[in-house]
TrEMBL record:
InterPro entries: Cyclodeamin/CycHdrlase, Formintransfe-cycloase-like_sf. Gene3D superfamilies: Formiminotetrahydrofolate cyclodeaminase monomer, up-and-down helical bundle. The lineage of its organism: Bacteria, Bacillati, Actinomycetota, Coriobacteriia, Eggerthellales. It comes from the Bacteria. This is Cyclodeaminase/cyclohydrolase family protein. Residues 5-182 form the Cyclodeaminase/cyclohydrolase domain.
């Protein structure tokens, strides 16, 4: 039976889990699907030449999957001080100053956690590239589906970075985070799109 607890929590009016947690969860699903492709490949004579690499990718995918699941909780924890800061009183200049100080501190983790989700989703995409090119052809559509899901997770996580950068006063830090985000998107989207096009052509 499918455990729907996360889905039900996501659907509720509670602020967490939200987009960041959903991104991490989607990335974990992509990792699991890519692992399925690998597990359908190992032990087959036809793929003996890539057996060792497939095994290594399976270990990597298990690691990224667990990390992404951990990042669901990390994202929720990062949101708590952010929500608290937005809720602080701003009636006096002293209160405004204290509120802004708390907000700026909270924005750091609120950006760094989704960036970490993006980094890990990119690792999943890289594994999907290998699985699509060298995994069992019987699971080629699954490899393609995995890379599409991972790309979606990557892009979704980037939106959490964007919205938080909009409130960050530290322009140097914001520029650094924005550059990291854009680099991750460029690399991940390019790889994912190439794999999807290749899988689609091969399936057709």
């Amino acid at each position: 039976m499918i455990d729907t607890q996360f889905i039900e929590e996501l659907a509720s009016k509670a602020p967490t889990p939200g987009g960041g947690g959903a991104s991490a969860y989607a990335g974990a699903l992509a990792s699991a699907l890519a692992s399925m492709v690998g597990n359908l490949t190992v032990g087959k004579k036809k793929y003996a030449e890539v057996e060792e690499r497939v095994q290594a990718e399976l270990i990597e995918l298990e690691s990224t999957r667990h990390h992404l699941l951990e990042l669901i909780d990390e994202d929720a924890r990062a949101f708590e001080p952010l929500a608290a800061a937005y809720g602080m009183p701003k009636g006096t200049e002293a209160e405004k100053s204290a509120q802004n100080e708390a907000l700026q501190a909270a924005l750091v983790d609120a950006c760094e956690v989704p960036l970490e989700i993006m980094v890990t989703c990119l690792e999943v995409i890289e594994s999907c590239v290998f699985m699509a090119r060298h995994g069992s052809v019987l699971a080629l559509s699954d490899a393609g589906a995995a890379v599409v899901i991972a790309k979606g997770a990557l892009q979704a996580a980037s939106l959490n970075v964007v919205i938080n950068l909009g409130s960050m006063a530290d322009e140097e830090r914001a520029s650094l985070y924005r550059g990291q985000m854009e680099d991750l998107l460029a690399a991940g989207n390019s790889m994912a799109d190439e794999v999807y096009a290749d899988v689609l052509e091969r399936l057709s």
